[in-house]
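One such given next:
>
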Amino acid sequence: MFRFLQFVLFCSLIFSINTSTYAQTKKLSIDDRLLQDSIYKSNKKKVLNFSMKDFDALFFDFFKTKSNPDVVLTKTQFYNYTVQIATFSDRLASLYPAQKEIAAKNKEEWLSESYEDYLLYKASQKK
């Protein structure tokens, strides 16, 4: 009986640690959220009219610029890229209703990109 209680206690401990670990999501600062919101509002109409060619150009330009160790984007430039990429998920969701959940998840992932994480990545590139 004691072994069984130990096992149950151990499983509940693992479960509680596991759920609290997954529950931690990165939160952006209020300033970053406001900046994202203003970029979203100013670019929404333009991005929703992007063709796949326009989106591909934006996407590849972002990764080319991000991987260039000599270029550091400003906060506005960084969020301009990530918000536009996230906004394109709205277009994909409207074009492909069966993929709505995937598009929403992708949008959330792009909107959770942090400028501070980007700066840490850039610092690690220079080492």
Observations:
- The CA atoms of residues 93 and 102 lie 8 Å apart.
- The longest helix spans residues 2-23.
- The chain is about 80% helix and 0% strand.
- The chain has a mean pLDDT of 83.
